[in-house]
Write a structure and sequence with these properties.
- The protein is α/β, with parallel strands linked by helices.
- It has helices spanning 12-17, 20-23, 40-56, 72-84, 98-107, 120-128, 147-154, 178-189, 211-222, 234-244, and strands spanning 27-31, 37-39, 64-67, 88-91, 112-115, 134-137, 145-146, 167-171, 174-177, 199-202, 225-228, 248-253, 256-261.
- Strands 2-1-11-10-12-13 form a six-stranded mixed beta sheet, sandwiched between helices. A five-stranded parallel beta sheet has the order 4-3-5-6-7, with helices on both faces. The chain has a two-stranded antiparallel ribbon with strand order 8-9.
- β1 and β2 form a beta hairpin.
- The protein is globular and about 45 Å long.
- Mean pLDDT is 92; it is low at 1-7.
């Protein structure tokens, strides 16, 4: 957070990506499953253009958009784009059934849904059972808007600022403003000694809560690198430490979510 800035006036986008240009080509998000890598520079550009593209495709301020993906990397990009557009990001459990997901999206009156090509069929089925009218996919998929096309649509279009007091993130339990979400990030910061040089491997399940978004947000605020590794094995973790320089791992240990130095 910038010196002298009040938490009530800082948006999630500003807090996480305000120094993206300064971090340049340092890796921000790495998806081990899909091989996708976002540098801080690329992340800032993609999020800004996608946000402008969402507005051009009709997203209104305060409108909820679901995020139904398998990877913490894709989840972060989608949530940041929605929030930067002035919308409210709703992370959905990757294991949710169609009925439960449709009910949650309908409850929040969501009109858009981010997904990935492997989940697009379920996303389309959910759209038919809810008020979702556009599905956005990280990759070409029948009946969905390709994220790359969304970014191209927003090229050169300034995004509108989102007031920090407005809602930013929704869950099954309620809605968080920008300030409330960032308060959760700063609470985690007091218990996890995360620094810019860290490489953070995230293997927590995307369960629809804020645990993963809050941890990833803290890493991005620090200028660290996040590696998304859903379902990684202990052998895979040892390889990631050796080959990728992982220093922190967010794992499930005996049904508890833990962050540990490796």
């Amino acid at each position: 957070m910038a010196s002298g800035s009040s938490p009530a006036t800082v948006t999630v986008s500003d807090a996480l990506l305000g120094r993206a240009a300064e971090h340049g080509d340092r890796p921000a998000l790495v998806d081990l499953t899909g091989g996708e890598v976002h540098s801080y520079r690329r992340l800032g550009r993609s999020v800004g253009c996608a946000a402008a593209g969402l507005v051009r495709r009709g997203m209104r301020s305060g409108q909820v958009c679901g995020v139904y993906v398998h990877s913490a990397s894709a989840q972060a990009v989608a949530m940041l784009a929605v929030i930067a557009a002035g919308g409210v990001a709703l992370p959905v459990s990757a294991s949710s059934g169609v009925t439960a997901m449709a009910a949650l999206l309908t409850h929040h009156d969501a009109r858009s849904l981010f997904t990935t090509p492997d989940l697009v069929e379920a996303a389309a089925e959910v759209a038919g059972c809810s008020r979702v009218r556009q599905v956005i996919s990280f990759g070409p998929a029948p009946g969905a808007v390709d994220f790359a096309d969304l970014v191209a649509l927003g090229e050169g279009t300034p995004r509108r600022p989102a007031p920090a007091g407005d809602a930013a993130v929704a869950t099954g339990g309620g809605v968080l403003t920008h300030a409330e979400f960032l308060a959760g990030v700063h609470t985690l910061d007091r218990t996890v000694d995360l620094v810019a040089d860290d490489v953070v491997l995230v293997a927590w399940p995307l369960d629809g809560g804020c645990d993963v978004p809050v941890l990833v947000s803290l890493a991005l605020m620090r200028g660290a690198t996040v590696i998304a590794a859903p379902g990684i094995t202990r052998q895979g973790l040892r390889r990631a430490v050796a080959e990728l320089g992982v220093t922190l791992a967010a794992l499930v240990d005996e049904d508890r979510k833990v962050v540990t130095r490796v």
